[in-house]
Each structure stands twice: as structure tokens, then as C-alpha cells.
Records
---
Amino acid sequence: MVSSTEAIYGFTPVESSAQRLLLSVNPTSPAPFIPVSATPIPDTSLSRRIDEYARSHLPVPTYNHSLRVYHYGLAMKSHLFPTWAFTDETYFLACLLHDIGTTETNLNSTKLSFEFYGGFLALDVLQKSPASDPDAVASRDQAESVAEAIIRHQDLCQQGKITAVGQLLQLATIFDNTGAYSECVHSSTIEDVTNHFPRIKWSHCFVATINREIELKPWCHTTTLGEDEFPAKVLGNKLMEPFE
């Protein structure tokens, strides 16, 4: 039984298999148009601090990708998973920090795969209480939920369970990167999100990051997605090609 505290931070267990999860939802109507204005960024001290942190550490294409994942994910949640009770803030933090391990500095700072190192970085930065704003700190449960989601956001398992916030991060990330699950988001939502947060040739940028990590760490977790297959899926993203 998931406690109410666990639920608001996204610890509700759901299917790891996106295919089985989406089949179980079986939406009876097409995805509605959900504009960026309907999924605003949380107006909290913690969200503002982490947004500033992400802006100052991530290249613009990666930062924009993180915000697209936020808005696409909430559009999916509204349409397909309205009972998932986690807060927009928790999901926002996971989106902003999910690729923090891909910066050139962080790729070279560790032998760990970028998702794992990113999860540890997130766990640390979220629980730091700045003297200027003591309220801008995550609880341990919230920080651990975000870290878990980041560590597993490329863990595309077909068996077992994952947290609800982790599954939404996976779905929206793969959607933006490869165009999978195109039926889950209205075309006008895609257009509105990319107008606000341009891709700036994101597909080529992301593939360069994939190749850079594999060059530095040929054992990295990204290789489980296919050293050739995954970059090919990213570069073959026909859904997002008009917005590149």
C-alpha cells in the first residue's frame, strides 16, 4: 500500500513496460490539445532554484529538451494517467535534472554512466539548503524519487515495476528523442511546445552526446539501447523532424 506521502512524490509502482501500460490505459479518445499555458512551471522556491541551476549548467539545447519533456509528460499524464497523484514540482525537478550527467564536465568527472551520476548529483543538489532561501530544499523522499527516476530514465524494461514519476519521465523522454508513442500527444501540443522550447537540431546534439559517452565509457548503460540502433532511432525521428 502506497502512503499518501509516497504518492505525492511519485513512488506509486506502475508497469515498467510502456507497451503494456499503454494497452491497459486504452484511451477511448484522441489526445487533446494541451498548450504550454495549461502546464505551467511550478511557482515554488525549490523549482526556481533548480531551474536556475539547470540553466547555468546545461547547454541550451539540453535545457530546452528538459522543458519539452516536462510539458509533454504533463500532457500525457492529464490524458492517460489522471489518477497519478505526484506533484508537478517533483516531475519538474526530475525533468530539469535528468540529463545533468551529460555535460562535458560531468561526463569526464566519473566512470559512472551518465544517468547514475546524474541521479547522485540530483540527490545532492536537491537537499542543499541555500542560506538565502531555506525553503528551497527538497525533502529526502522527494529527492530520492527524483534520483530514482533519473537513474532509471533509460532503463526500458519489459518486466517488473517502476515509479509513476519515473515512467512518465521515460515516456516523455523517448517521445521527444525518437517520436515513439506519437498517439499520446496532440500534434498542436507538439507545435506549441517546440515554439516555446526550440529543438535547435536536438537529434544531432543528442546523438553527439551518446557517441561521446560511449567513447569515454564503452561500458555505459546507454549501450544497452543499442550502440547503433539507438542513435539511428534518434536521427530517424520523423515526428520531430519538421521542428529540428
---
Amino acid sequence: MRLMYSKPSPYASKVRLAAHHCDLMLELVPTDTGSAPAELIEANALGKIPVLILDDGTSVHDSKVICEYFDRLSGNLLIPQTMEAWLQAKRTESLIDGATECAQLRLYEVRYRPEEMRYQPMMDKQWGRAMRALKVLDGEVAALPDQPNIAHFALAADLGWLSLRFGGEWEGENPNLVRWLEEFAKSYPAFEELKPMA
């Protein structure tokens, strides 16, 4: 299997962490979404990463779908199967991915618009949404099980991205998440290699 990805992407990081956990080998294909390469557009009309290319050429896109595919391949090593545990894991994944999406909109406003065209109220609104989600997760993270599942990998990848792009702006209000990420990095050494990086 081949994975079209970029090192800074939190969603690609989540997928790589999930593959590592499931002992699945991936051929990594560094991909610049900005240049919209033909292979990416052919594999995912949205032009987004990560994209998993199966051995028969079938493409699988969106990190949640890719991770669910890995879960099925591995006999459910990623996603808990009892209703309560499934709900906790998927709720955590959805909330932290959503927080990252909001923070990305703030980042893109600065990255892609000239200063005079930036819309500060929109940036503030998206950042507020992200911070509300983090506050909820800060209060819930202690309840995650010891055995890593998709919630752990989503949380680690997204918090790693927030640290990369917004270091110093979110940690003070979320000490439990900061502590959790430090402990996860210690207990899961592969994170150092697979976390979002510039």
C-alpha cells in the first residue's frame, strides 16, 4: 500500500500512527497539495491528503475512512467494538479533528490572504471553536483507556500539529492535554518519528 502524505499533516500523522499500531507497511509518497499533482487528483478529486493507494490501484481517502480500513484489516486493533468504548473513541476523534479543522482555517486565512484582506472576526470565531473543543477534551482525556486506540492516535497527531503551528497559544488553558501528550510520547516512542513535522 502507498500513502500520499506530507509530514506536517495531522491527518497523515494519524494514519501513519494507526498503520504502525496495526503493523501495516506503507510506502510513503511525499505529496505537495499546493501543486495539485496529477496522481493526487486522480486518486482523490478533492486534491487532499492523506490518500491510501491499495495494491489494485483503488484509492481510499479521508483519514477516518483510511483508519477504519486499517481497523478491518487488523481485526479491530484500532476501533473498540463495544458500544460505550466505540462511542468514546469516535467522539474523541471527531472532536479533536474538528478542533484542528477550525485552527487550520485560522492558519489558512493568514497564509493565503494578504494582510489587508484577512477577516479577523472569522479567524477569532474559528479559534474560539477550536479552544472550546480542547477545553472539553482537557476535561475528558483522563478517562481514555490505557490501551491505545483511534482516539489516542487522533489526539496525539492533532495536538502535535497544534504544537507545531500554534505552540504557546493553547497549552496554558489545557494542562491535562499537555500532560497527556507528554506521557503518550514517552509510552509510544514511534510518535517522535510519526508526529507532524515542518
---
Amino acid sequence: MLDHEDKVESVIKGDDSSDETASFKSKVYRIFGREKPVHKVLGGGKPADVFLWKNKKVSGIVFGGATVVWFLFEVMEYYFLTLVCHGLIASLVIMFLWSNATTFINKSPPKIPEVSISEELVRQLAASLRVEINSAFAVIRQIALGKDLKKFLSVMTGLWILSILGTYFNFLTLFYIGLVVLFTVPVLYEKYEDKVDPFVGKVMVEIKKQYAVFDAKVLSKIPRGPRKEKKKTQ
């Protein structure tokens, strides 16, 4: 049997063939208790590829486009309706002139594809949105019923932080900050997860200790109504 130091040494050397190494790796703290790679945590597929910069060209276009939109609306104080109208005017003028110019230079007119939204796509989006909304309603109901004090405090803290940020940033800026976080934090975490996870593990242990003290001194002393016993089904 290898002791703890031998297990650590075997992991550092890259000896992944041993059962001891696999057992050691399975016990390593992972953020949010995840057991899947970061790519799977982000949902997998093309969206995860974009956020993790698997395709640098597509990721650069998406991130650059979002940056341009934020710059136009926040820095240049452009209005959304004005931007849409100006964009449509420029596009239609260019396509109109191009289509008519082809008759004089004996070239084929531009091929403009027919764009339409399929019914199946709308149903898939609606189904996905329905699941997320129902999950949010379930969490809100669980908190309102007072069944999970820890989740209640977490949600209240998150809403309070958002309310403070809302006094300094508008919705578009907050959305852009969230997008920047999605394009930077996951890819950096995937690169340095072996260093981040142990550090976060130590922080979580300390937080749990402090929460246990807070629970013993404050939360456990809060009076609560009597619990109703479930009727046994015969």
C-alpha cells in the first residue's frame, strides 16, 4: 500500500496506470463537486467550444462583436433602434446597387439565401426555456416555504450583490461583464485547474467551518414552527 506522499509523488510523475493514483485523483476537490471536464460543464457542443476558445476565429468574432456593440451603446451612446435602422439602410443600399450593377457588367447577381426559422428550432428553444423557467420557479418555491435556509441565504446574498452592482452599472454593461467572464474564467480555469482546485478546496473548508459556527450560535437558535409528520400510507 502506498502512503499519501507516495500517491502525490505518483501523480506528479504522471503514473496514471496505478489504482492508487486513480483513487487519489477521484478524491481531489473539484469546484462545485464536478466530475466532468469544463467543456461538459458548459454544456458541451459549439457553445462550449466558443467559450473555451477551441475555435479561435469564431470565439474572436463573437467576443469582438459583443465588444463593438458594448462600445457603440455605452461609450458612443448609440441608440439601439438607430443602429438597427442604419445597419439595415446600409445593407439594403449595398445589395440593391450590387444587384442592379450586375446587369451592366454582365455578371450574375448576388445569391441572397432565403432565411427562415424552422418550427422545430422554435420548439426546441421553447422547451429548453420552459425547463429553465420551471427550475427557477421550483427553487423560488422551495426558498419561500422555508425548507432550505442555506439556499435562502445564498440567494439573498446574490440578489443583494446584484442590487449593489445595478447602482453602478446598467444591464448592458453587466451583461458584457458576464460575457467577458465566460470568455476568460473557464479557459483559464481549464488551464490551471490543478492549482486552482486545491486552493478553492482549502477556502471551502474554512467557509464550512465558519458556517458551522454561525449555525450553532445564530441559526440554530431561530425559533421554527413544528414540523408536520407525513401520514403513513397503508
